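Format is chain and fold; as here:
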Amino acid sequence: MDFTRRSLLAGVALLAAPPLRAAQRDGPVIVVGAGAAGLAAAEVLRRAGHAFTLVEARGRIGGRAFTDASLGPDAAFDAGAQYIHWADRNPWRGIAEREKARIGADSGWARTLLIDGRPATEAERDARRAGFGTLTALLVPSGDDRSIRAAAQVGGAGAAQAAANLTRLSLGEEPERVSLADYDRLWSGEDLWVDGYGALVARHHADLPVRRETIVTGIDWSGAGVTVATSRGTLAGAAVIVTVPVGVLASGAIRFAPGLPPGTEAALAGLGMGAYTKIALRLDPARLDLKAVGDAVSVARRGERDLTLYFEMAPFGRPLAIANLGGDGARALCEAGEAAAIAEATDRLVQILGTEARGAVTGGRLAGWWTDPFARGGYSIARPGCAEARLGLRRPIADRVFLAGEALADGGAMTVGGATLDGARAAAAVLRVLAS
């Protein structure tokens, strides 16, 4: 018999599960979380004619797909997801086309590179390009499911630096904490840049009934059905689909009774949350001509940490400069708070554009998912040696607790499209169980 890590986790879950009553077949399905996965699950249940209750801790829907208009309607920006990845198989491509969402062209490589506040030399730029070239050849999975950092080390300092830039600015995590095998499984294809991805998600699901500002604190699955404790009372149902991010699950913010089976806990321990972060600066176009400015990268040290900011300048022509960052430096900045984050981004922008840029900044917003209690990170990351953890979370618990979300989406992980597909998968699984 072929014993894989996945089958071993499933076996542990079965052997360790306490004796429980047979699953209840009638009653509503409780869906926890109105991000992309929860919304998709609710849509499947609604189409099937099955009763459901969808609860959401925030006062809005969409989760980490969120278009933030707090800096003004003309300066709205996607604080979370902004690309329809692998568009050839992503359900949001068709939705975006039908709803005539505005699609932009990716600006490609940044025109400007600053290192410690000064323009990079041509030799430094060449070295960074060479490092990425070397890294690309080294990112080949091996049987030991090593980290991206371990794979890059044999390529020297340039490849190691490229690995850090890759994982921090695309995953929000340090390279030593990222499974190369899992990274290699991510689906690839055309990426479409959406103007208002979060707004598109909210608009598409606007007619779904959602109990907002309802925080789930406990799930009891010891009976034939489930009982869900919330900040607005207790809900009872035949089953529950839990779509909160794995960072929230791992934090213990939701108490399970009985506790999650050892196999589920082991799979959950194999996943972490990256700290992909954005800092949006609103700019006065009368004081700064953003049309002449391309994207820029600013590299600097902050104490013991590298803090690299990638600036998107005037996305979709809006009066904004949006700094993208990740890894431990982003964590520290999120923990320092919004004022500190805006100050850091402003200082870096001044280094890029000159002193007049400081007076042009009229507002700012930190999209700090790392310190958001309902996210606890940007999106899920499989740790080295834990590439099977995503699929390990898919096994239903006693046919009444089902987990779903981007973290379980295998090759579609870390994306709105993956979360949507996985929410639909979980709802279909619930319906099969309840119909049996």
